[in-house]
Amino acid sequence: MKTSNILLIYTGGTIGMIKDSETGVLRSFDFNNLIIKIPELKLLDCTIQTISFNEPIDSSNINPEYWAEIIEDNYNSYDGFVVLHGSDTMSYSASALSFMLENLSKPVIFTGSQLPIGDLRTDAKENLITSIQVASLLKENKPVIKEVGLYFEYKLYRGNRTTKINAEHFEAFASLNYPDLAVSGVHLKINFPYLLEPDATIKLVVHKEMDTNIALVKLFPGISCSLLQTIFNSTNLKGIVLETYGAGNCTTEDWFITLLKEAITKGIYIINVTQCSGGSVAMGQYETSTQLKKIGIISGKDITTEAAITKLMYLLGKNLSSNDFRTLFETSLRGEIS
Length: 338
Known about the structure:
Layout: E1 4-10, E2 17-19, E3 26-28, H1 34-37, E4 46-52, H2 65-74, E5 80-84, H3 90-100, E6 101-102, E7 108-111, H4 124-136, E8 138-139, E9 142-143, E10 148-152, E11 155-158, E12 163-164, E13 173-174, E14 182-184, E15 188-190, E16 205-206, E17 214-218, H5 225-232, E18 239-244, H6 254-265, E19 269-274, H7 287-295, E20 298-299, H8 305-316, H9 322-329
């Protein structure tokens, strides 16, 4: 039987920190000494190699192009990848990478922790060990997981279905509109019916052109026309993710609908996503969303805000016609919508 060769990519974040025993100050952990710090990794049926940035990047300053390039350069040399990442923007990076890596047929598992790897009560060890184990799973000498996943607190999720829901609890992430891909307990249970099954014979294509000329607008009762006009009239604005109420509802005041119409006429794409943690946009279900459907607002269906933002960047980078753009956004490309 073949043994998996896993590349561990440390980018930054809490998981890579260790507390100095004398000063109590957190410093970056040397991942070249990973086996020394976590000897349990020797029990895994795989080989592990590591890449660490010289200067760890806080997740607030993240740029997914870094990971795409590393994976592209090493894709043929490894059976799977584990990306250690700060948890704050992990869902954004996992979503972005899912779109950037077209025809991915190997696991790319994001993980991190709420406490540093050197803390007594850390969640880092379990998250790291199981992420590597998940990435190393083979069936008939082929990877079991063939997509971008996110592992945290005993659960593997599809990366572009996740949202960070808690800044304090170990169970920091949720995938409210899609089932878990795997659950780690006494046994590691893989939910095979929910896994992506891409055609492994098609070559990986890496897309690095991500257009960031977009805005995220969260509606609230009493939002002013002047504020929205300032955003919608921003120079070079190409797309807006509009977080609406419930199943995609919003105010029906004339000034608001007119503002949306004018933006669409200028070629700005507007994506309707729900503010709710779970559930789906269903434009036309209520009178307060019927007009949005009529004027050409694009339905995000049950996509997360994180995935909507990164999918918008991805599609804008492809210079599509308006009809093709709408069709592709409302189509599941990487399992991001139902």
